[in-house]
Amino acid sequence: MMATKPTYQELEQKIKKMEQEKLEYNMIKGAIFSGDDRPGYKIGSKVNRQINIAELDLASIINVEEIQSIMDDFCYLTHMTTAVLDLEGRVIETTGWQDICTKFHRTNPETARNCTESDLFLAKNLKPGEYVDYKCKNGLWDVVTPLYVGNKHLGNIYTGQFFYDDEQIDEEIFIKQAEMYGFDKVSYLQALRRVPRYSRKTVKHLMHFLVKFTTYVSGISLLNTKLEKEIQERRLAEKAHQESESFIKAVMDNLPIGVAVHSIEPPAVKFHYMNDNFPLFYRTTREELADPDAFWTSIYQDPDFREELRKRVLDGYASGDPAQLHWEDVPITRKGEETSFISAQNVPVPNKPLMISTVWDVTDRKLAEEALKEREKLLNEVGRIAKIGGWEMDLTTRMARWTKGTYDIVETGYDQPVPGPDEHIEYYLPQYRSLVADSMQALIEDDQLLDFEAQLRTAKGNMIWCRAIGRAIKKEGRCIKVYGTFQNITDRKKAEEEIRELNRDLELRVCQRTAQLEEANKELEDFVYSISHDLRAPLRSISGFAEIIDRRHKASLNEEGRHYFDNIVKASRQMDVLIDDLLRFSRLGRKAIKSENVSLADAFKTAIETLAEPIKKTDARVRLPEQMPVILGDSTLATHILINLLENAVKYHKPGVRPLIDISVEIEDRYVRVSIADNGIGIEKQYHEKIFNIFQRLHSQADYPGTGIGLAAVKKALQIMDGQIRVESELGKGSIFKIKLLKAITT
Amino acid sequence: MIKPASILLVEDNPMDVELIVDAFKEARLGNKIHVAKNGKEALEFLFGEGKFADRKLYPLPDIVLLDLKMPGIDGHEVLRRIKGAEMLKRLPVIILTSSRDEGDRAMSYDNGANSYLVKPVSFGEFLIVVKQVSDYWLTLNVEPPME
């Protein structure tokens, strides 16, 4: 958010530069236009240093027409031929040229060569401040002196086409020349006679005059040119300056901060400059801030807060301490708004009672920071409560960093150095160091989640258990940093140990209790056995004597007596069966159980043989599968189970319906499932569990005699052999008893 | 037919005694049956001790029908003493008990019982058992030579 804002230093420099440019501009403007004050003005001074004379040519410096006119007058007075030529040989001015030269010598190629030769000679022998004369091969004198402007040779001043007055003119030579070159002798000689004659002194003065005159004229011209050029350049500079100023204004107005230059004379604040954002920042306008002191009254409505801020500002100014002039994250209340946070930088303008103030809103950052602080605080608090800390190790710098939580766990001061990747192992007890090193290596090299528990001794010497979890940060496939959590798990470890101890204790108690229960169970079985046995004796007496009565004395009883007597006999028989079953049931727990291979086919065979009589009596059909497996268990118990289940299947048939019993087996990995399905009377669902309880009977003795012990005994026998039993049945739709037995271990 | 063999019936339950004796009677077996009401009395009878010192009056039986569950000296102890005594070790001892318990059966045979019979509940079956005992042990079986 703040990245786009210029730094204060940048801003300061910009303003300084602006001031400097303004100063220079004013100086130039003053020098050129004010007239009375011309500090530093000289040709060739600082101001016109940028004019390059090398770029100038003679024609551009001097006014050719005016020079021509002057030289015409000069020629009229002196009758001297003159010419001004630039270095390119261009004739700038020429007057009074002699016909002998223009009409004769320069028209014939051969004599013209002499003219050129003369020009070249003069050009070669030019000397500043001096003149050179040369008698051309055509017989006339030429004189040249160089023209300098400043120290720059810009052209040459030329005269000639005369004779010195002290020399004899031999017309014969010219007559010969006329003949040689084919000039018209009469007009050639007339032209010769018109050639002026000067004394050497006259020529010398003439030349001095021409040099001085031309130099002076050129100098003035140059000055004018320079001035003109400077003015033009200054106009350009001014335009550029204006452009730069509006650019800077645009920049300033678009800065996301408020910038103002203002007086600091208490108590008022008078603004000299403010960018567009300055009034916007304070939710006001330039107009509202125009009056001195409006800054305070217009912006801060709460008088107490206003005075507090004003005091702070003025104290800051008075102190001159840059630290006091820099405000960071100061809370302010703007019109009709919640509290905002601002930062401000105030810089006094040197030697002036002015201050440059910049202000910017840091509310978003401040709120984000506060939220971050809150989160950090929460994280630290959570860490403190959970005894969790954070850590990271930089594998490049080999440095590490901890959160407070980790410092707390290892009980060291927050200012203490953090052990890096090369030192942290030393913290752990020696027996855990290889675990720690291996885990760290696996994380760094194979990106395997780090998770270990180890013991260490804290800075205060306390022995603790800790758990470290860590992940890796990779860059270009290489692990550059590892980080994670660090937790004090001493309490958990203690609790675990306590649980282990409790478990050990519990196991012991369970064993003891089981032994007690087994003992009690055995006692109960013994009791049942003994009771059943002891019941047998009186039963035997009852039934024995009843039979004796039946055999020998029945005739002496009347009808009613016989009926009651029969009841006694029936009851005693029933009781006999009951006692038998009870004894068998109790004996299951007393019997030594064998674990042997038992052929299911043999067990069924025995059971069917045992039940031959009821099977025959009911005409029951028992269908066995062709193949039957071998089970693991006790053959007596297995047979007992099958007898009971088959007996029930035969017994509980529907009146007048032939019992059809189907046996099927399923062989699984470890078990054999045997199903005994009948077409009998069926069992209601609510009794499917109950029928396996002892003494649980669903029918009267008259309908289906029984003791209610058979299925309980079956269930018990199966439990002894690690088997199971359940029933699937519906009333009137037959029953399927399903048993699960251990499969024999085949070799 | 030689003189019917004499029997020592060791039985603490008087009703069982009556039934057994009755059964012998019903079966018309003329055996002489002496009843000992407990283990102690049985041993005194067999060893000719106390009031049974007179062997003429109380001669050794040909066979012992021995109940196991008796107060005081039980059937197992009586059997052990008989089989442990030189003069009695060849005396056939038939265990007649209501116990089908494996332990009882094993211990009885281990201690030298000659036979193990479970008392039936019905009198009719009692008669069969008594007859079979008589037929086998008292008629068919050739006794070991007495000292």
Describe the structure in your own words:
The complex is a heterodimer of chains A (747) and B (147). Chain A has 747 residues and is α+β, with helices and mostly antiparallel strands. In chain A, 49% of the residues lie in helices and 21% in strands. Chain A has 21 helices and 23 strands. In chain A, strands 1, 2, 3, 4, 5 and 6 form a six-stranded mixed beta sheet that branches. In chain A, strands 8-7-11-10-9 form a five-stranded antiparallel beta sheet. In chain A, strands 13-12-16-15-14 form a five-stranded antiparallel beta sheet, sandwiched between helices. In chain A, β9 and β10 form a beta hairpin. Chain A is elongated. Chain B has 147 residues and is of the alpha/beta class. Chain B is built from five helices and five strands; from the N terminus they run βαβαβαβαβα. The radius of gyration of chain B is 14 Å and the shape is globular. In chain B, 40% of the residues lie in helices and 16% in strands. Chain B has helices spanning 14-26, 39-47, 75-84, 102-110, 123-140, and strands spanning 6-10, 32-36, 63-66, 93-97, 115-118. Chains A and B meet through α16 and α17 of A and α1 and α5 of B.
Brief account:
The complex is a heterodimer of chains A (747) and B (147). Chain A has 747 residues and is of the alpha+beta class. Chain A contains 21 helices and 23 strands.
Which keywords apply here?
heterodimer, A: alpha+beta, Beta-Lactamase, 5 domains, 6-stranded mixed sheet, 21 helices, B: 147 residues, alpha/beta, Rossmann fold, 5-stranded parallel sheet, 5 helices, 16% strand
Which helices and strands appear, and what pairs or packs with what?
The complex is a heterodimer of chains A (747) and B (147).
Chain A: H1 8-33, H2 58-61, H3 64-78, E1 81-86, E2 91-95, H4 99-105, H5 109-124, E3 132-135, E4 141-149, E5 152-164, H6 171-181, H7 185-194, E6 197-198, H8 200-254, E7 258-263, E8 271-274, H9 277-281, H10 294-299, H11 303-319, H12 322-325, E9 326-333, E10 339-349, E11 354-361, H13 363-386, E12 388-394, E13 399-402, H14 404-410, H15 430-446, E14 450-457, E15 463-475, E16 478-488, H16 490-552, H17 559-590, E17 596-599, H18 600-610, H19 612-618, E18 621-623, E19 630-633, H20 635-651, E20 660-667, E21 671-677, H21 710-720, E22 724-729, E23 735-742
Parallel strand pairs in A: 5-6, 18-20
Antiparallel strand pairs in A: 1-2, 1-5, 3-4, 4-5, 7-8, 7-11, 9-10, 10-11, 12-13, 12-16, 14-15, 15-16, 17-19, 20-21, 21-23, 22-23
Helix pairs in contact in A: 1-8, 6-7, 16-17, 17-21, 18-20, 20-21
Chain B: E1 6-10, H1 14-26, E2 32-36, H2 39-47, E3 63-66, H3 75-84, E4 93-97, H4 102-110, E5 115-118, H5 123-140
Helix pairs in contact in B: 1-5, 2-3
